[in-house]
Amino acid sequence: MEDAKKYIEDVLETVKERDPHEEEFYQAVKEIFDSLAPYLAEHPKYQQFGILERLVEPDRFISFRVPWVDDQGAVQVNRGYRVQFNAAIGPYKGGLRFHPTVNSSIVKFLAFEQIFKNALTGQPIGGGKGGADFDPKNKSNAEIMRFTQSFMTELSKHIGPNVDVPAGDIGVGGREINYMVGQYRKLRGSSEAGVFTGKGVDIGGSLTRAESTGYGVIYFVENMLKEFNESLTGKKIIVSGSGKVSIYAMEKAIELGARVVACSDSSGYIYDEKGIDLETVKRLKEVEGKRISAYAEEHDHSSFYGGEKIWQVACDIALPCATQNELDENDASTLIHNGVSIVAEGANMPCTLKAVEQFRENHVGFAPSKAANAGGVAVSALEMAQNSARVSWTFEEVDRQLKEIMQNIFDQSLSAGRQYKCEDNLIDGANIAGFKRVADAMIAQGVL
């Protein structure tokens, strides 16, 4: 065991020394590698093949200029990225994020997490991620179209249905993906539906894709509860964010009998003891584009807490579904004090390492993002399968497969955690199960 720990420490130190400014990337690597010591101790072949050293270096890191013209005729320039991290089990697969905080560390951490998340789904897809430091807020539709087309002009050189298959993420929804599809088709002079997922249904997209990440989180939590012969019925839930992941996590939770009492956006959170009226949230956020505070103006029995974090609300289940590192150790302490029993990550790495440590030490059921929010990429893989076969499955059929995949991810994570005496810890179990699939594929293909 000590040799395995020393091997992990040496690789982590190399990561820190090589890119000291990439804090999010280092955090993601450390979270996964810290789980692997018992597995590596039993299987020294991974050190012999230099698997950890190879895993932390992407196959390629692409950075490029994205010039575009705003509505006033002024030229603007943003920076675009695509990280093609690991393709041992299939083409690179991962979303594109448009947000002013996007930088090399963010896209690398997202792409690294994606390797293991994709492996857990059981689908033949590798890990990648990308995006740009472009802020779509307060931009006109024409500006978003021009930026997206410029972005795709460069990215098109590096992607393809058997090479790299992007999807959406924060700031990139169906509209942006559709623009990318159109620009890619124009540049390539051919129709290749399978090169993007998250497309509109009328151009080859899959039903259930919009709902998949949120639904998947709840399916995972449902499996956690079943281990204790419990269900979601009557559980009090809070959900950070009010985008697609949050909305559809709330929708499925309510459908299964839970009571969602709070959700948020970057301005603050709303609390409704009677239970959030989801149709109001959907209208305000998806149709009218308003702040979540408008909910309290329409529902007298609710309250809006501006500039405050949602984690002070007492609940049975907390679902961080907004963005990375949104829940820190102080928030974890508050949730634990108020009696939380399960925390499931709907966003990518929304809990800091110290927050996760607190949940583990206090025996709070914790579902890591690479397992709990894998529903989105799972359905993306199903969309790729439909595109390849030129068929379209029903909403019910895709949802059935999604539910099965989430159960399989839970089962893999639980089994691996128990096998390596991780006290049924889903974090360690998910990391070991995902690592094993990728690392074995890398060894089988030689040193590449």
TrEMBL record:
Pfam families: ELFV_dehydrog (PF00208), ELFV_dehydrog_N (PF02812). Gene3D superfamilies: Glutamate Dehydrogenase, chain A, domain 3 (1.10.285.10), Leucine Dehydrogenase, chain A, domain 1 (3.40.50.10860), NAD(P)-binding Rossmann-like Domain (3.40.50.720). One of its GO terms (molecular function) is glutamate dehydrogenase (NADP+) activity. Keywords: Oxidoreductase. The keyword Acyltransferase does not apply. Residues 206-446 form the Glutamate/phenylalanine/leucine/valine/L-tryptophan dehydrogenase C-terminal domain. Belongs to the Glu/Leu/Phe/Val dehydrogenases family. Homohexamer. NCBIfam families: PRK09414.1 (NF006929). This is Glutamate dehydrogenase. The lineage of its organism: Bacteria, Bacillati, Bacillota, Bacilli, Bacillales.
